[in-house]
Structures are given as C-alpha cells and as structure tokens.
Amino acid sequence: MLHYKVAIIGAGPAGYFAAQALHNLQNEERVFAIDMIEQLPTPWGLVRSGVAPDHPKMKTVSKVFEKIAADPNFRLFANVEIGTEITVAALVEKYDAVVVATGSTLGKKLGIPGEDLYGSMSAADFAPWYNAHPDFADVKVPFDCDTAVVIGAGNVAMDVVRMLALDPSELDPTDTADHAITAFKNSAVRKVYLSARRGAEHAAFTSPELRELPKLQHTNVIIERSDIEAAIVRAGQTPGKDVKSNLDAMLLIAKNPKIDNDRTMEFLFQHTPKEILGADRVEGVVYSTPNGDVRIKCGLVITAIGYQAASINGVPYENGKVVNVDGRVHAGMYVVGWAKRGPTGVIGTNKSDSAAVVELLVADLKPPKNAGDISQLITSQQVVDQSGWLRIDAAEVAAGEAKGKPRVKSIKRAELLKKAGI
Ligand SMILES: Cc1cc2nc3c(=O)[nH]c(=O)nc-3n(C[C@H](O)[C@H](O)[C@H](O)COP(=O)(O)OP(=O)(O)OC[C@H]3O[C@@H](n4cnc5c(N)ncnc54)[C@H](O)[C@@H]3O)c2cc1C
Q1: Dist. CA 305–CA 322, nearest whole Å
Q2: Rounded to the nearest whole angstrom, what is the distance from the C-alpha of residue 81 to the centroid of ligand 1?
Q3: CB of 306 closer than 6 A to ligand 1?
Q4: Alpha-helix residue ranges (DSSP H) falling in 141-240
Q5: Whose CA is nearest to atom 5 of ligand 1?
Q6: Of 59, 39, 62, which Cα lies nearest the Cα of 51?
Q7: 89 CA distance to ligand 1 centroid (A)?
Q8: What pLDDT shows up at residue 128?
Q9: Is there an atom of ligand 1 within 6 Å of 51 CB?
C-alpha cells in the first residue's frame, strides 16, 4: 500500500473538491493523507466571504465540504498563511503533491481617472466587508449619498446591486456582518444603477439571478424595454440558450416595471465609464454611450469587473492567474479553481475542474517521499484545526439560533481564535 501526502493550499470550494477527488481515487494500492492549509481561521473560501448572504441556499454546499473534512485522512491547518509563514518550496519538499487553491481575490481596475477617490471601491473589498471577512472589517463605505453606481454585468455586480438596493430589514434573518446591517440601515442610498459596457445580449448574469429580481418586495427594478428589444434584434435568430434565457428574463422585468417603492435599481446598458468625478470624494461618473456622453451624479461607485489572483512567493503568475497547463504548474505542483481559471463559473464548476486536475496529479505520482509534513514547519501556536473550526462553527450557529439567523459570524481574528479554543 502506497501512502501519499498531498497539501492543498486554500480551503475554498476548489480545494475541497480536490480533496474529494483524491479521496475517490484511493484504492487497494494507494491512500492519500490530505493536509488543507488556510490563511483565515475559518474555511469555505468565498462560500463564507463572497456568496451573498441573502442567498443562504447557495451556502449549503458547505455541508459537502464538511463531509469531505470528516474523512480521517483529512486535516485542516487554518490560520496559517502560505508564502509568508511557510514557503511553498518547503511544502513541495515534504509533500508528494501540492495543490494551489488560493482563489482570485484582487479586484480588477477600470484604469480611468478618479478611480482612487474616496467612495470608489471594488466589489473585491465590498463583498468581504458585508460578509464579515476579518481583513475587511475596516473598509469605509460612504452611504451618505442617495445614489450609488455599480459597474459590471456579471453575478457579482448583481449581488452588489441587490445588497445596496434591497430593504436592509430583509438582511435581518441572514448571516450578513452585524456592522454591515447597521450601515445598510443607516444608509441614505435609495437609487442604485448597474451599468454595463456592452448591450444586454452580452451580459454575464445567469438567468435565475435575474428572475428573482421581481420578487424583491421593497425595490423597484427598472430596465429600459427598448434596450432589451434592440439587444434581442442584435442577438439574431438563434441566440445561445443562456443569452435567450437572460434576455427573456430582462424583457419580463422591462415590461412590468415596479414604481411604488422608495428604493430603485436601474440597469444601464452600453454605458462605458470614462471618468469618476470628484474633488476629494466621488461625486459622479461620466459615461460614453451611443448617444454621447452621460453624467450620473452619485457618491458611491463599486466596480465588479473581474478578479485577479494575489501572487504567492514560489508560484508563477501571469495575467492574474497561476501559470499552468491544464492545472499542472510542474510535476508535483498543481492549481485548481479561480487561481487556475480566473473568476469564471459557478461553485459546481470547481468540482469537475478539480477532479480533472487531480487525475493529472495522480498520473504524475512517483513512489511516496515520506519526507514529513507541515507539522514540522509550523511555529505558530495559533493553528485552527478541524475540531477548532467545528467549535467556531457551533458557537456561530448557536449565536444565530437566538436571532433567527443561520449564524452570527465573528469578525475579529482574536474572537475567532478564542471560539476555536486557542
Ligand atoms: C462576491 C462573489 C459572490 C459569488 N456568488 C456565487 C454564487 O452565488 N453562486 C456560485 O455558484 N458562485 C458564486 N461565486 C463564485 C464562487 O465563489 C467561486 O467559484 C469559488 O469560490 C472559487 O473557489 P476557489 O476555491 O478557487 O477560491 P476561493 O473560494 O476564493 O477560496 C480560496 C481560499 O484560499 C485561501 N488562501 C488564499 N491565499 C492563501 C495563502 N497564501 N495561504 C493559505 N490560504 C490562502 C483564501 O483565504 C480562501 O479561503 C461568487 C464569487 C464572488 C466573488
């Protein structure tokens, strides 16, 4: 029997699905001991810190992750950062294979004047702020304006618009960070624009997200009917299934505008941002449109135009992704998930993607190294293992039960470590 050791860096969906795929490829000849290493005291990656809190069903995929983590050959080392505390090279030396599953966390920039003004920020900072990510608790979001603009035409942009435009009381039964619920309740924002550079036929939303918009109880949703009718013409006789489904959903909204709420979200297509205006904070956005320049007054701009991977020493990067061929960085090092593909696909996409990469990994295996593991590299006394995480989880869920929420998340690292029993 061959005993292999695999280190997975990053406890997001791609990392868990890689662990699951390894587990499934065990047989009477080989077993895999899996060590998953996570920089935060908590696992689950963007399922905890990205997915919108008003979509609790989406977060139930965490049950699958916990089933994977319950395997006796699986160990969690959370609150351990790779690249700083422990080098990738040290892991490569010890493990038979290292899988980089660190995601894609940096928001892409528009590259236009005014982007660095106070009040202009990326969804890469805003979403973790409302999701209680410990490193984003101090993000300042100016809510003292009546209008906000979200730039982007994908599901992250849609999440951000919804979070800004829904009635904050709808967040009470969710696990939104307490500081964010308070800020949303005190917010003066009542009008939120979502602006897309291209026509509606190119929008990267998925149609279930569009179809749920009319169900928002306290928010008007405005889409200009002529924009969608023109997009339908441009899409031609045989649009792709997803495009057709999106356009159908948008046409339905456009035909039935709600107007009687004091909160409104409005979609603007073919609006290319040229400049963010303001002296010492955001005061507006100038767009180039087919009808000439348009200026929208606003005090908050959030860009959701894609993500790039943050680089880790010892791993090669290019164009915001880890350099790889089909997930192989080199024999012994692999990459999965958003760090591999960039920010595309849904959570489930990571499952088949990780499984395919793990097949390569297994095909490359040589006899086991038996060179030790991460426990010989760790010097910190503050490592959260699976049982520590389960203590955090139980404490958060118990705090939530009292308030009718799935959980109340602890925000500060010190608080999380205390709950872990450290
Ligand atoms: C705002 C937002 C909302 C989304 N909503 C949905 C949705 O509703 N439905 C859906 O299907 N998909 C959604 N997605 C997409 C989904 O979250 C991704 O497909 C998925 O999380 C990618 O998984 P990953 O494991 O590659 O990365 P991640 O989930 O980002 O996980 C990476 C993990 O690696 C850790 N890490 C990073 N660097 C290090 C390091 N140096 N050392 C140790 N650990 C490290 C991170 O802390 C993180 O836990 C959303 C994405 C975003 C950004």
Answers
A1: 19
A2: 16
A3: no
A4: 155-165, 178-186, 207-211, 225-235
A5: 51
A6: 59
A7: 24
A8: 98
A9: yes
- What is the token pair recorded at 317? 């990067």
Cα–Cα dist 101/18, whole Å = 9
The residues of the chain scoring below 70 in pLDDT are none
The CB of 327 under 6 Å from ligand 1? The reply is no
- State the pLDDT at residue 259: 82
CA–centroid distance, 231 to ligand 1, in Å, is: 32
pTM: 0.96
Cα dist. 154→101, 190, 306, 333 in Å? 23, 22, 9, 31
Token digits of residue 222: 């405005």
Reported as a single tens digit per residue, the pLDDT across 77-116 is 999 999 998 999 999 999 999 999 999 999 999 999 999 9
Angle 361-362-363 from CA coordinates, rounded to 5°:
90
Pick from 326, 392, 346, 407: which is nearest to 46 by CA?
346
CATH topology of domain 108-306: FAD/NAD(P)-binding domain (3.50.50)
Helix (H) or strand (E) holding 418: helix 413-420
| Residue 159, ligand 1, Cβ within 6 A | yes
Strand partners, 34: 6, 74
Q: Which atom of ligand 1 is nearest to the CA of 14?
A: 25
* Lookup: tokens for 41: 């005291």
* CATH number for the segment(s) 2-105+309-383: 3.40.50.720
Pocket of ligand 1, candidates 9, 68, 102: which has the most ligand atoms within 8 Å of its Cβ, to mutate?
102
Alpha-carbon distance of 256 to 225, in angstroms, equals 10
Each domain of the chain, given as residue ranges in start order, spans 2-105+309-383, 108-306
| Residue identifier of the C-alpha nearest atom 48 of ligand 1 | 45
206-to-238, 246, 325, 360, 402 alpha-carbon distances in Å: 18, 7, 28, 31, 34
Which pLDDT score is estimated for 366? 97
